[in-house]
Design goal:
0% of the residues lie in helices and 49% in strands. The chain is an all-beta fold.
Length: 123
């Protein structure tokens, strides 16, 4: 399974970005998917996750109401819409897939990882 994250960039505070995570054709649409981020000098942390069907989502408290995760299984793609961005959202964002239908806030539950995309929010 290969995951390709894209959509990062430089944006001013209050702006928006949409990240995409495209999975290889071998990826089953029945995988739970998640987004994580790692800011400079900090450990990688959970951002958001979505069930295989897209019916259930989860967010870390700091992004609730600002970020929206979604997926299009026909395109093997997961999205993270990020609105009202803040400088503290600056990080490398990684998408990941579990090896089953579960999704989780725990990084060890994820078997496949993308290469990361840089998001920089200026004040």
């Amino acid at each position: 399974v290969q995951l390709q994250a894209s959509g990062g960039g430089l944006v001013q505070a209050g702006g928006s970005l949409r990240l995409s995570c495209a999975a290889s054709r071998r990826t089953s649409s029945n995988n739970g998917m998640g987004w994580f981020r790692q800011a400079p000098g900090k450990v990688r942390e959970f951002v958001s996750a979505i069930s295989w069907s897209g019916s259930t989502t989860d967010y870390t408290d700091s992004v609730k109401g600002r970020f929206t995760i979604s997926r299009d299984n026909a395109k093997n793609t997961v999205y993270l819409q990020m609105n009202s961005l803040k400088p503290e959202d600056t990080a490398v964002y990684y998408c990941a897939a579990t090896s089953s239908t579960i999704y989780s806030q725990t990084q060890s539950e994820y078997k496949y990882w993308g290469q990361g995309t840089q998001v920089t929010v200026s004040s």
